[in-house]
Structure formats: C-alpha cells, structure tokens
Amino acid sequence: MANESIDPDVLKMFSFGVFSKLEGAVTSGMIHLGDRLGLYESMATRPDGVTSDSLAGHLGLHERWVREWLHNQVAARIVSCHDLSAVDPVFYLTPEAVCVLATPDHPAYGMGMFHRLPQTMAALNYMPESFRTGLGHDYDSHGPEGAVGIEKSFEPWNQNFLIPYVVPALSGVQEKLEAGARVADIGCGAGGLSLLLGRTFPHSQFVGYDISVHALERANERLKHDDLSNVRFVDPREEAITSGEKFDLICTFDCIHDMTHPTEMMRTIRQSLKDDGTWLLVDIKAHDSLELNVTKNPMASLLYGVSVLSCMSSAMSSPDGEGLGTLGLSSSKAQRMARDAGFTSFEKLPIEHSVNAFYEVRP
C-alpha cells in the first residue's frame, strides 16, 4: 500500500486502539496481583484511605512495588485518590469497588477470571499447535487454580439468587425439593451449586458430575467441610449419569457450550430425566450470528477471546469435538438441540443476569 493512501489520523487512532487492548491485558495482570496479594482486601478495611507506605506495611510488602501498583490502579481508574498532586497521596476504594474487588459473597464480585488469569494466558503457549491440529485442551490443563477461578466467577451470584429467585421460577420444583427429590448437577465444577442445594433441601439427594480431576478434588474437600450426607460428587466416566434411578431435576450451569459432545449430553439428560422432571439449562447469553453478538454484546471481544483460550478449547479437546464455544449456544440453537434430544417444552425464565440465560426444559 502506498504511503500516501494512509491517513495519519486514522493510523494514530488505530494504533491507539490496539495498544489500549494491551493496556487492558497488563492492567488485568495488576488486578490479579491485587487480589492475590490481598491489596484490595486490605484497602477495603480502611475506607478513609491508605498511603503506599501504610498499605505495604500492613501486608508486609515492599513499599516501592506497592506504590507502582497503586499508580497503575489509579491511572486505570480502579483505585481512587484524594489528591494526585500530594507528596504522599492517599488511595481508597469506592463502595462499588469494594463490592467488585474485595467482597467474595457479593453478587457483583468479579475476581474469579482474574484469579485464574495466569493459567488462562498460559494457554497462549500451546494455542499455536491447537490452531494447526484443531485439537484443544480441557479445563484440567489450567490446573487446580483454574477450578478455583471458575468457582469464584459464578458462585457469588448463585449463592445470592439461586434459592430465592431461580428455584421458585421453576414450575413445581421447589415443592419436589422440599419433599425429597433426586437431583443431578452436571458439570458441577467445585460443587458450590450442589452444596447449596444440599444444605437448603435436606430431604433431597444430589449428585454432582464432572470430568475435571481438579474440580472434583475441590468439591470433595468442600463436601468434607460441610459434612452433608445428601450430596456426593462423581466422575461420569466411572459412574454413568444414566446408571441409576432417574432424576427429578437436572442442572447444567455454564457447561454445555464447553462440552466436546453437547448433542450427546442432551440425549443423556433426556434419558436420565423422569417424564415429569425438569432440566434447568443455564448458559451464556448468545445470539444467532456474529453480527448480532458484536453489535448487541459490548463484551463480545472478551468472550470470543476467552473461548479460544478456554471454552472452545475445551469443546475441541477431543478430535470429534463439536466446538460450540462461549457464544455458541444461542436460545434458538439450544431449543433446537433440546427438541432433537427428545424434549418438547423449552421456556426462557425471567431471570436477570449479566452473562447467563436461564431455561426451563421439560420432556
């Protein structure tokens, strides 16, 4: 391309846009450090603010490193400052920042993806080979911290809203759970959903299924701590989902799009569900086309990138993987696949969530 055809102002803005993405990536690393080192948690306990020296001293860290970290956070408008021109500035977190950065039980808590950021980004080391061969990597490739990151990403919302809002929205399900039902949590991860339901509905029996060794280890650790006799966790390759009595309720939270064989799994769910049972399908909000995803979802670029590094990689981790990916299960596609699997009723529930859509699916 001839130089005279390049608009210098357009070039400047394009370059700025590209490097703004790099800024986001580097600042994400700083957020990971803030979470890992307890910097946000410490700041949250002192609403009047901290200096770099007092924050470092409180955590036993080196002041110069803490100061540079704080400068990044202020520049990124994550941490606030009373007076940037002060010789020894005072930094603080707004109440909203405390919710997102330092309150694990708040539904807006957002540290899950940042917790597993090193493991997610480490996938870049083996992505070139995946692009050549087509073969991805399952979630255990992210190690134990990957499982903890998923737990921290989704459980805050579930712990706050599942029992008071989601369960009552399912026709007749709460009554069954209170009386005594058999429930499967497929793709249970670290087990938070099963444990919450098990504590809330002691007359029901819950089985969590997952193929991640790290997730099952974490789930069983938490089960031992909670000491629940009505919850257990198993690998479906060792105990098939279809092997026992059929279920009154089957839950799949944010996992169908990650599976290598989602079509087969939907058939398994139908086969394992009682004729009057319910499948609670929860998955990422998605549209039917690239155009709709890009124009209607401001986080589309993030979600497509996470798909390459994590979700689609998992969905392509066997040679015949279907490869749905993060934005691969739109409402219409999910409904079509469910009907092909033998379900006749598919209803979107009126549940508000920033990322997920909730469906009640029945035979």
Automatic annotation (TrEMBL):
It holds the Pfam family WHD_Rv2258c. The lineage of its organism: unclassified sequences, metagenomes, ecological metagenomes. Residues 28-83 form the S-adenosylmethionine-dependent methyltransferase Rv2258c-like winged HTH domain. It comes from freshwater metagenome. PANTHER family: METHYLTRANSFERASE DOMAIN-CONTAINING PROTEIN, METHYLTRANSFERASE TYPE 11. Residues 178-299 form the Methyltransferase domain. Transmembrane segments: none annotated. This is Unannotated protein.
